[in-house]
Design a protein that fits this description.
2 copies of one chain form a homodimer. Chain A has 12 helices and 8 strands. Chain A is an alpha/beta fold. The first copy, chain A, has a single domain, classed as Divalent-metal-dependent TIM barrel enzymes (TIM Barrel, Alpha-Beta Barrel). An 8-stranded parallel beta barrel of chain A has the order 1-2-3-4-5-6-7-8, surrounded by 7 helices.
Chain lengths: 276, 276
């Protein structure tokens, strides 16, 4: 086997299908679809897992041998009951055997203009959760979202900010999520990936295209259909020491309206096309 | 007069109405509306000036004594004919007697993923335009736009990037536009305003609210109706030495649908409420 074929095979084996990409594909169907496509990694979301049942999900995973690359998501530290909810999220991640719980911090409290305070609160919240995460062997992966989400979803908008918080804790307990969709605009992102080193807990890709839809959440497109140089971010996380799974995670109404198996295949194709 | 009343009076006198805030208010009506409201500063856009006529606009300005605080806009360096068009924009700014031409760089060329290259091209373009700007006594004010515009409108998305380019030139020739709407998410913005110093060529305010509309351009709201701490940016530009006009510039379909005089009054009220 040539080196090039080997590299391609290795890239293929690192592919992970984040189930949000086919939002309406029932969990058992998504699992079966992955198995049928030779995909061995899946990223799960708490809501569909809860709907199908945590035990039932685990049984399915054991049966199929699929690995759960991450659980989405904890965070939203400004909502009532955030602490208990995040503890449960950590427990669920541990139960599913995934090493990573993705954290999206949440935005500003209603009526607040105190973004500095909200950011400090994220650090406090993670400090409160870190001992339980460490006890469960789950890494909390702070995800910076694109700055267009700063007010309503995530006050952490750069990898630098995520690392400023993560570095207060043990690297095995608090890391970062590197998602090309959220970071591509940032001329500091590649440098910050280098800074992150072993704190890169999960690597996700999606592509950027305009015009953005109303609400902007569902504007992502398949890798290769937008303007992001996906490959240079893979090179950067690789140089930082990351050799783990690579999730494709897309939120897009048109893609969600397609059959799950078709979406999975498009994700694999776009992934291979942009990363190899 | 107490110091506090003096400060308020001074703030009131620095108010500038960017005409884009009342997009469909004809230029002579907007000028008359400013005069009626005791507003002495207006920010103009090239298209309505061209429609009304440059000479006619100038006659109106002489007659009313209104100052033009900035002309929007040059830039879009990836479009055909950018060089000639930007030279004309500089000429128009000089003819209108405004010291500032706002520059919005433009996004990625169609089909391109080379954001680094596009950013370097902005620096090259400004280098080509700087001699003419200097000869005309017009400051080119590079405006970083919010990162959600990175691909289609403006590859320059932080004040730091704008300054990296501006600092290659004389401060009187190339400065920056500080707009709170575009910078509020950036935890480096206040520091970068300090770095900017005399390069702050124009200060604009608008407020951030969600959900963003489709296309995201028209999501801005009046100062005070969103989550931006306007005042701390005024404090920062003041500390940097800026004592010039402060433009309110809003793009919002609902606001555009209202009578111009009402919009102007709302802009004044929101400005005074958030900045004093």
């Amino acid at each position: 086997m040539s080196e090039r074929v080997g590299a391609a095979a290795s890239l293929r084996s690192r592919f992970a299908f984040n189930q949000a990409t086919a939002k309406y594909w029932p969990l058992p169907d998504a699992v079966a679809g992955c198995v049928a496509a030779g995909v061995t990694n899946i990223g799960l979301w708490r809501e569909p897992v809860a709907e199908y049942g945590l035990d039932a999900t685990n049984a399915l995973l054991r049966e199929t041998g699929l690995s759960v690359t991450s659980l989405c998501r904890g965070g939203f530290f400004t909502t009532d009951g955030w602490y208990d909810d995040n503890r449960r999220a950590i427990d669920e991640a541990a139960a599913l055997g995934t090493p990573v719980l993705v954290l999206v911090s949440g935005g500003l409290p209603a009526g607040s203009r105190d973004i500095d305070g909200a950011r400090e609160r994220v650090a406090d919240a993670i400090g409160q959760l870190a001992p339980h995460a460490a006890a469960c062997g789950v890494t909390l992966a702070i995800e910076p979202l694109h700055p267009m989400f700063a007010s309503d979803r995530c006050v952490i908008v750069t990898l630098g900010q995520a690392l400023d918080i993560a570095e207060r804790f043990d690297a095995g307990t608090v890391g970062v999520t590197v998602d090309t969709y959220h970071l591509w605009w940032d001329d500091q992102a590649l440098t910050q990936i280098g800074r992150a080193g072993e704190r890169v807990a999960i690597f996700q890709i999606a592509d950027w295209a305009t015009p953005l839809p109303a609400g902007v959440l569902t504007g992502r497109v398949m890798p290769g259909d937008g303007c992001v140089q996906q490959r240079r971010y893979l090179d950067a996380v690789t140089a930082a020491g990351y050799a783990g799974p690579i999730e494709v995670e897309i939120f897009n109404e048109e893609i969600w309206a397609r059959p799950g198996a078709e979406t999975l295949q498009r994700a694999i194709d776009g992934y291979l096309e942009t990363l190899r």
